Amino acid sequence: MPLPLELNGERRKPSKKLSFQGCQGGQAPVIPDPTRERIRMQATAGKLQIAPNQTYDFTSEDMIDEGEIGRGAFGAVNRMKFTHTGTVMAVKRIRSTVDEKEQKQLLMDLEVVMKSNDCNTIVTFYGALFKEGDCWICMELMDTSLDKFYKFICEKQQSPIPEPILAQITFATVRALNYLKEELKIIHRDVKPSNILLKRNGDIKLCDFGISGQLVDSIARTKDAGCRPYMAPERIDPQRAKGYDVRSDVWSLGITLMEVATGKFPYPKWGSVFEQLSQVVEGDPPRLSTTYNGMEFSIDFVNFVNTCLIKDERDRPKYGRLLQHPFIQQAEKSDTDVAAYVSEVLESMANNGITQFTTDLPAEGWNESFN
Fold this sequence. Notes:
It is a single chain. Strands 3-4-5-7-6 form a five-stranded antiparallel sheet, with helices on one face. Strands 8-9-10 form a three-stranded antiparallel sheet. The chain has a two-stranded antiparallel ribbon with strand order 1-2. It has two domains: 43-140, Phosphorylase Kinase, domain 1 (2-Layer Sandwich), CATH 3.30.200; 144-220 and 227-352, Transferase(Phosphotransferase), domain 1, CATH 1.10.510.10. Helix content is 36%, strand content 17%. By secondary structure, it is an alpha+beta fold. Strand 1 (46-51) and strand 2 form a beta hairpin.
């Protein structure tokens, strides 16, 4: 699908830097002991903030399941309707192995995360609750994930995503990551195509953050975290893993962009953790070039991706430097009509029988499928 470099149409200009009102330094507040029991007793209920002045108490009984729209190692995402307002949202149900103490921390983290609703490149969070050990996270419903989107374009339409669109995806994602770190003191820890979401109105938003640090660490104790394909070398190598830094997410962003741009994950499929350790930690990093498998990329895009994939994290830039990169600077000034492109692809996906829904499996039944 051809797309001219200069596209007509309005694109929402990035908002000015937003102030963070809440816990100092973005840290979760310390809950006094008398409050802990109350939180434990109320863990099966939660609050939904649909709008700034529209907050509701809710339980799982207030949600009507309309079908599954996504699935991953940690759980499933279902489209659900809140009965009191008719609001349709995405509800991520995570199979949680966390104990009561960690549940309380997660609920506090989510309160901080809801402060991110001021940023237009981050998915809006409505609220959360725990039910029978599962964490239900209610968030804005988008139309598709970048994962499904690029695979349809590259595999079904046999064409790459136009670079002006890649530029807007990159710009939105870096802005979101930078906002999380600077305003909320949050590091994402799980940047990948399925966590970048698209809407037919042209919105590009990042999801799955905030709670990820606590929850992913907890689940990692029972799952093989070493097989996560977007993980940076310093996170895989036990000799170097000495605390998490945003530059590890920069690596994940580079892998994500290279995959989405070329239509192929930059490493061959690993058969074991040892293979991943050998290739990512000991081998050379993936490199994009201006001519890659018959595709043409600009020098600025190639340089941006390869900068993200600098193997030594000490030389890898943080978000401040990335936002000054020529590729990002050009994207910020561009008037690329993302809405027109996304709408056209979504229409083509629908015509090919591809919808939001992955299966007809109701939310109540997904536990059995993960055994």
